[in-house]
What does this fold into?
Amino acid sequence: GTAWTDENGRYRLEGLRSTDAAGNAIADYQVTVDAFTRYLEDGASIRYRQSVKSGKRVGDVVDFILARASEASGDAIAGTVSNPGALGGDYVAVDIFRGVDGAAVFEQHLLLDDYNGFRFTDLISGATYYLGFGAYVGEVETATSYQWAGECAGCGHDIGFADTAEHQPPAGVRTYSPGVVPFQFQFDTSLRRAIPNGLSGPGPVTRLAPRSTVLNLARTPSEAVSSAPRMTVTWQPTAAGAEEKYYFLFNKKADYQINKRNAPTPASTARVSTSGDLSGDSVTWYFHVAAEDDRGRIGQTSSLTFAVDTVAPRNIQIRASRSAAAVGSGVIQLELGATGATEMYISNTGFGEGGQWEKFAANRQWTLPAGGPDTATVYVQFRDAARNAAGAVVTVSRAGLPTLSDAVAILRVACGIQTADDMQRLDVTGDGVVGLADAMVILQNIAGLRQ
It folds into this structure.
């Protein structure tokens, strides 16, 4: 939803859902404030930075204190890296830290563009910033070097300073302010292996699990199969826990590792995520999440595997036949087929009526009800592991089904009374002899005592 503030800066978002389709409370709303330029009486203007708060639910009061941005002509810190490949990395990420009470607090990171440049915008006017440059290798993101930008006297460019164990700016590095003239940074190649322990990020998040009410369906030993097109996942903080944010996403890659190169921005403080529409036919999905600490270090990626199946069994085929031995009886042979089916439900009265779910079988003997019109209808439903169901019907002719007159004719023959009728068609037991056993089967079928 979207709302405008009133003259006092108050706003109210209406029409939001408090629970999802499964009845779980939605606690991952993200509220974003985009403040328009404020024009003063003297013609000057004030711009404010975008502000975001996440992990909210319906009923929360979300207050914002907007930070003033720099003037439009000087709200950036920009530059280029002259030797991005000098340390053998696959890519370079630039971190920007804001100086707060003598410490460097991580704000965000950028990758170099096609021209080896970077540009941080929408910064706080009057604030000071530090810049860190990391050269990384591989999906797990191993750094070949991490260096802080500082002055190089007489070099014509800024140079890298070795990182500290606390992943804080070392002595002598330079601070930057919004509006600085774009500068050039160069890695110090003598610091190729200068990687202190401080560069290690937080560990994996804990208790990563789907909400049981969302996946309250059939499960395999290693994954859940759900017919719900949306998945909700929750998790707990890492062992470090303090001041963490999280990068997370759903995709189809089993071994996906979140790093600075592919991190889905922005990071969020929420510890719950609901997917978009994941509809598919037995499609395996993965949820990945990694923590980012207050120094910009991304920790280990934790993943959850699950399967989504929102498609009912298809390519349904039903064929009814009667064997020579069964002609004259109500017994028919059903030949069944349905892609993805694991269960079936057969009925003479309607879908889901008068029967029960049973394991799918390609062939099933079935008995039609006695009496009724010239044709009988058999209803068949098919269901998959996620309990998606689809059904179809087959119509069977009653021609040749035994009648009460046929049972009487058998009894007459058994008593020695001759008849010109074709009695062999009444061999419903299939033993080659028409007798009292056949009359008994016919009478039971007429009475509805046989299935």
